[in-house]
Backbone:
């Protein structure tokens, strides 16, 4: 007997009671008195039954149920619950009634009574999968996990196309630390053929739950999830909310193409819901970013800021994309807008300063970093960017000071920041300051972290060669750098210079000519070195041509003196 049936019966009954009440001048039962149900049996339709006993049980259940409804309407919830409970006691074979009343008892935080009802119902040979699933839920809530597992397994055998029992059993196994059995439960569900789309989408979400808890098995589990999701029949009518759920599941499982296709199709469906539409655009932008499709990512983000001009996160992402493409003016503009809209957006200050440094605006970068210091604590990033800004300003004393500060902070809080790139930049600043021992320490530390760091090998090797020190080691370092980047003009120049210092002039000439040919743009230092090598080879006309070209590219008094001396 369904709740709908009871409700129809007692709507009629209560209508009759109301009429009686109206004639007597009272709309409800006297306080504390049990509502009258004298006319209940008269209001009930004739019920076909196999025995008088069954008919009496059903009639008694009706009476208790009707009384419960009356109490409920009168605000007497405890009395109503007791009558609902008595209704099931009166007709113990009515499974639908037991399920309904157990729901009421659970909502009222009375799981023990709900369990008592369902345990008795579950003893019937024809017990339904719904009852067993509910029983499994109550057992799990009471931490009776073995009983919960048994109930849910029985429920699956009764109702293999209902996801609830699989879900209950899955979580039971996770609670008992049996992940393999939990996954086998999901795989069993996946083997069911006569299931609807909601079953498949819900199962994919359970796979996603497993993958999040066991990352080492994520790849395999996501493949299982995608196999389930691709069974969803999208030719059937699906509501926008169902499509959104499906797209989210594809996204989590790693099929971003399928997710993007659904998200884009959903945009018109949420034209009146700006928040949801912007969430869709954000997800699309994320997908396009993952796929390195910057053009479409920018398109979605620009649509967001057009509709939501105060969306700081969208401006920040646009700034990040502009930085990646090297359009520094746009990046600076976007980061500034993000900070204006959200003054506490700490990372935006750092990215703005980095963009300003890249755009050769070091003073602007230092001003940005000064603003960040007012708002936030001192960090490695602030000191590192301050050092880089001072390098751009060619203030190497301040740059080295800031690199030192950044190193101290990182050693105390963020040692992972002290990578080969940090020490390379630190070493280059020290070398340009003239602190060669400190520069060598930094370059060696960079090479300790990354032994094949070609840029550090070349820089340190050239530094030694230029000073006429450790020429064999310098040659070895530069040779290793060239082995990794054989056509690098700077590395070829370094090799020419160390060979020049070793007196191997013909070899030096070969390498310097290669360097000039390989360098994308003419470089004053290369032509200065070429002039020196020609001069050492007593080829003064060629030396003069090289030095003259060097001065044309970049005026330099030292080179001019060599050119003037060679003219005499």
Residues:
């Amino acid at each position: 007997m369904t709740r709908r049936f009871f409700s129809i019966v007692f709507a009629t009954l209560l209508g009759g009671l109301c009429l009686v009440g109206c004639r007597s001048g009272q709309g409800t039962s006297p306080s504390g008195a049990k509502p009258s149900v004298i006319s209940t049996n008269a209001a009930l339709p004739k019920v076909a039954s196999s025995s008088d006993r069954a008919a009496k049980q059903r009639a008694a259940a009706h009476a208790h149920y009707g009384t419960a409804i009356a109490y409920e309407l009168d605000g007497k919830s405890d009395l109503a619950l007791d009558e609902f409970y008595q209704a099931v006691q009166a007709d113990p074979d009515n499974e639908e009634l037991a399920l309904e009343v157990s729901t009421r008892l659970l909502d009222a935080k009375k799981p023990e009574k709900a369990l008592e009802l369902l345990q008795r119902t579950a003893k019937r040979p024809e017990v339904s999968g719904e009852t067993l699933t509910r029983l499994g839920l109550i057992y799990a809530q009471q931490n009776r996990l073995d009983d919960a597992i048994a109930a849910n397994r029985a429920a699956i055998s009764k109702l293999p196309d209902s996801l609830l029992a699989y879900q209950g059993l899955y979580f039971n196994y996770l609670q008992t630390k049996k992940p393999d059995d939990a996954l086998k439960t999901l795989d069993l569900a996946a083997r069911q053929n006569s299931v609807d789309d909601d079953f498949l989408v819900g199962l994919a979400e359970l796979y996603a739950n497993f993958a999040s808890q066991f990352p080492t098995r994520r790849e395999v589990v996501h493949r299982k999830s995608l196999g389930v999701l691709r069974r969803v029949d999208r030719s059937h009518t699906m509501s926008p909310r169902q499509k959104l759920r499906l797209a989210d599941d594809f996204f989590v499982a790693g099929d971003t193409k399928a997710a993007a296709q659904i998200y884009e199709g959903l945009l018109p469906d949420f034209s009146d819901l700006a928040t949801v539409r912007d969430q869709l655009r954000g997800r699309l932008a994320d997908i396009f970013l993952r796929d390195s499709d910057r053009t479409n990512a920018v398109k979605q983000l620009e649509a967001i800021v057009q509709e939501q001009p105060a969306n700081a996160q969208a401006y920040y992402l646009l700034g990040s994309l502009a930085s990646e493409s090297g359009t520094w003016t746009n990046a600076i503009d976007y980061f500034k807008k993000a900070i204006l809209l959200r003054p506490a957006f700490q990372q935006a200050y750092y990215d703005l300063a980095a963009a300003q440094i890249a755009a050769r605006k070091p003073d602007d970068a230092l001003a940005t970093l000064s603003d960040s210091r007012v708002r936030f604590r001192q960090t490695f990033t602030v000191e590192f960017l301050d050092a880089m800004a001072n390098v751009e300003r060619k203030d190497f004393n301040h740059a080295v000071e800031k690199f030192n500060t950044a190193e101290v902070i990182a050693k105390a809080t963020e040692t992972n920041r002290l990578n080969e790139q940090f020490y390379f930049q630190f070493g280059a600043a020290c070398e340009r300051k003239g602190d060669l021992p400190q520069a060598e320490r930094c370059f060696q530390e960079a090479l300790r972290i990354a032994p094949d760091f070609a840029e550090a090998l070349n820089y340190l090797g050239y530094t030694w060669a230029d000073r006429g020190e450790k020429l064999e080691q310098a040659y070895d370092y530069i040779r290793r750098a060239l082995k990794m980047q054989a056509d690098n003009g700077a590395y070829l120049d370094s090799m020419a210079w160390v060979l020049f210092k070793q007196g191997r002039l013909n070899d030096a000439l070969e390498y310097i000519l290669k360097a000039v040919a390989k360098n994308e743009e003419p470089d004053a230092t290369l032509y200065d070195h070429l002039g020196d090598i020609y001069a050492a080879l007593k080829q003064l006309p060629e030396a003069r041509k090289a030095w003259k070209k060097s001065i044309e590219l970049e005026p330099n008094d030292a080179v001019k003196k060599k050119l003037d001396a060679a003219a005499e």
